[in-house]
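User: I'm putting together a small comparison set for a docking exercise, and I want a reference complex before I start. The sequence is below, and the ligand is adenosine-5'-diphosphate. Could you produce the 3D structure with the ligand included, as structure tokens?
Assistant: Of course. I'll restate your input first, then give the structure tokens for the complex.
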Amino acid sequence: MPPKPLKLLRMRQNEDYEEYVKNLLDGKGTLNLSGIRVEITMDMIRRESQTLGSGGFGNVYETNYEGIVFARKEIKIPSQVSKEEMHRYLRELDVTRQCKACPFVVKFYGYYIYRVVCEYNFYIFMEKVPFSAAFMIEKMLKIGKEIPEFVLGRIACSVVHALRFLKDALQIIHRDVKPPNILMDYDGRVKLCDLGICAKLENSTAFSRAGSYPYMAPERFKEGYDDRSDVWSLGVSLVELAELKNPYTTNGNQLQHLIEAIGSHPSPTLNPKIFSDCLVMFISQLLQHDVKNRPKYAQIEQLEFFVLHDLPFTYIGTGKSPKKDQERQSVGKWIDENLLSGSN
Ligand SMILES: Nc1ncnc2c1ncn2[C@@H]1O[C@H](COP(=O)(O)OP(=O)(O)O)[C@@H](O)[C@H]1O
Ligand SMILES: [Mg+2]
């Protein structure tokens, strides 16, 4: 069943909005750790802990409660921010919370906000997912190996499920699909994270340029765009995972060059002598330069590479599909042998 519509996003035009934001800001959160409810304490917030990652907006730390390990994203918001900006920060919280029904998005446990002199400290608690796809690339470069196609397949299908959920259930697009925001656990379950700049589609279109340039679809530099710009970013991310380098950052990172390359060069492709026909064709579809030719999620789900590697939403090994059971186990085994071994 799809989750209820986003309360916060709907509230925007509504006079209850101020009240809603005020309640959020006063919120003394509780954590729901897979059924166990605990009050969030200052100790959980302040505890020095291992950094799991950092991005343009926040730092993410490992934290724990009585041995249960989870992740804490910290965002500092200046207290004089405009209502619109505050709305953008709170949207990440709201959307992550609404994604609880989707196993392909990082699971939300709770949040906490408090105000210090001139800023709000904002914490989002979520499940800890040990590896990012960016880490996988680094690790493969270090050990001189490639990421096999069945792992690429698992990533591709899971991200498509996550993006389709965002689009169909919440009418939003992610806008920052890239390897650092794609996470994988020890059993090979893939989860999309970082809903910080996702956008509500108004009449199916969004406009702003928020996001990471090397992954941006050509149409994002020109006009309004829709969910198919996330499809492009997934295509670029998969090429990067397959070749262990981003196809758009080889000639330096200058913004003007990048915009030119994305806008007017032919889309990146994978070498058919190295990769299977169905992966090469999958990538060429995701990276259709003209957005009108780029497939939507329902069409992507029909492509051979997707069908070959997809494990349905709630797949548990049943023995009825030995090939899928085998693939499911193989991803876990690949992680054991490649991501866990040696120095990280
Ligand atoms: N739940 C999580 N478990 C483990 N690592 C995470 C988790 N969420 C984020 N990270 C890591 O932290 C990095 C920054 O988090 P992210 O939410 O992307 O912040 P930003 O909005 O600043 O980009 C991610 O790229 C990822 O490597
Ligand atoms: Mg990020």
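Confidence is low (pLDDT under 50) at residues 1-15. The chain has two domains: 17-127, 131-338.
User: Thanks, that's exactly what I needed.
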